[in-house]
Amino acid sequence: MSKWLLAGLLMAGGASAKTIVFGLSGEPISLDPSVTADGNTAYVTTQIYNSLISFKPGTVDLQPDLALRWTVSNDSLTWTFYLRQNVKFHDGTPLNAEAVRFNFMRWWDPSNEFGAKKPFLGWKNNLGGFKGEDGSLVKDIKVRNQYAIDIILDKPYPALGSILADSGLFGIASPTAIKKNPAQYGTPAGIAVGTGPFMLKKWTSGVNVDLVRNPNYFRAGLPKSEALLFRFVKDPSSRLNELLTGGVDIAAELLPDQLKAIQSNTKLNAVLRPALNLGYLGLNTSYKPLADVRVRTAIASALNKKAIVETFWNGLGITDGHLLPPPLAKNYAKSVTDYKFDPAAAKKMLADAGYPNGFALDLWYMPVSRPYYPTPKPIAEAMAADLSAIGIKVNLKTEDWAKYLQDRQDGKFQAFMLGFVYVTDPDSAYTYLIAPGSTTDITWNSPEANTALESARKLSNPAQRLPLYQKVDEIMFREAVRIPIVHSRLLVASGVGVKGWIPSPTGSEKLDTVEK
Question: Where does the Solute-binding protein family domain lie (predicted)?
């Protein structure tokens, strides 16, 4: 064990040993930032690292973190971050602009000697690709002075702030620590060194990750707990049982059908993580009946979404007419509420469109469970029953998950179920749902919506972007090519003695304010 870590352990151990035990659904893949976008990894790395900016607790609003402030140039291409001074990594080395650039160059440049040929999926999936690739959003990264750094983009990207706020993906690590052994960094055999509220003590593969308090954390008075232990408990029933018996203080990723058991137990607190996801029904306009907006609107009006959500989400689901999840509600158009459940009106719309007797429709449902669709087949059966009431004869189909995703992208489905999780900016969500190249699954394009999105990308002021996103909200509701079914809140729980825990919509949050 290195001297700096031993010293930290001794200082942390001087106070009464209060440890928060957190039950994860699995083991982290890597504690090296941006290597993976895995949820269990993010829970742990969020405690070890800080990012340049972060989300305000319980929201997707941005706040300072390692950067006290940031500015965006008039052309929206240069983002300048002004760093805190006197911040140190867990190994005692200083945080400065060179350290930040070291991290970014390691993620962005595949030829970087300290990247150790790691995949850095966090970077790839969020920033268009690596240096030298056509899709890369980043053009250059320059140190302005000791405590200021410029990120220069190839084209405007208003979601950059929200992307970089994810400390699980873009946490800043100690260059000194990485240089010791780049390949082993972030593995059970290596080390993980950030500026965060907790320091890595030991990662016991297959068992747990043990963290201890950072006595030199730059936020005064934090963290509240002396230690943080992440235990790997794969089965949801076992996680709940560990919570009941005191084996863990907090249990993540519980199931909707466990809510009543938690609420009825006076020793537990059920906590609903804000719904930062979407489950939708996609309609491919290449199929002749679905090319008519009246038919698509009829389908939306025939679905008893409220009953479906109440039945299958056990109080955890929210249904409305918006593709963006509730934490992004400020981007909603006031004119959009939801499609009214009205089978009679839906049947008339079908008749007006030339289908008085309905038509046959292949509806593809996912073969796997996701937070937005926990039980895909029964949910699809409920949709089919609603549609049969207006004469649409539904054939339910599914296939292997990998093939499902590819065939959907290739536009081979007439109607299908899908969704997304943890999108923190409207640009990211709409890029995934409606931007050119993203609508091959629905064979649809809206120049009006695309123009609004492109205009929003050129504006650095979030308030100026709002009317444009609200316009897109109206267009998508009117077009009904992706019908919003549900925004699902995720169930987590704690013992009643746990205080200061504020679950984040993003799926992982700093636990520096948690104590018991």
Answer: 62-435
Q: What is the DSSP string of 228-241?
A: EEEEE--SHHHHHH
- Contact between residue 290 and residue 281 where contact means Cβ atoms under 8 Å apart: no
Confidence of residue 4 (pLDDT cuts 50, 70, 90): very low
Which of these CATH numbers, 3.40.50.2300, 3.20.20.210, 3.40.309.10, 3.40.190.10, describes 3-253?
3.40.190.10
Which residue has tokens 């993620």? 107
Q: Which residues contact 38 (CB under 8 A, 6 or more apart)?
A: 28, 29
Whether the CB-CB separation of 138 and 130 falls below 8 Å is answered with no
Asked if 450 and 433 count as a contact pair (C-beta separation under 8 A), the reply is no
**Centroid of chain to Cα 6:** 35
Q: What 3-state DSSP class applies to 155?
A: coil
Q: What is the pLDDT of residues 281-299, one digit of tens each?
A: 999 999 999 999 999 999 9
Give the whole-angstrom CA distance, residue 67 versus residue 52.
5
Model confidence pLDDT, tens digit, residues 174-208: 999 999 999 999 999 999 999 999 999 999 999 99
**Nearby residues of 232 by Cβ (< 8 Å), 6 or more positions away:** 24, 25, 26, 27, 40, 206, 207, 208
The architecture (CATH level 2) of 277-488 comes to Roll (3.10)
Q: Is the pLDDT of residue 210 over 70?
A: yes
Q: Which residue has the tokens 């996609």?
A: 282
Band of pLDDT at residue 14, cut at 50, 70 and 90: very low
* Three-class DSSP category at 152: strand
- The alpha carbon torsion through 334, 336, 342, 343 (nearest 10 deg) reads 180
Does residue 295 contact residue 350 with C-beta atoms inside 8 Å?
yes
**pLDDT per position as a tens digit, 30-48:** 999 999 878 889 999 999 9
Q: Return the residue matching tokens 């140039």.
A: 73
* Residue 455, C-beta contacts closer than 8 angstroms, at least 6 positions apart: 468
What are the sequence ranges of the domains in the chain?
3-253, 277-488
With beta carbons less than 8 A apart as the criterion, state whether 462 and 321 touch: no
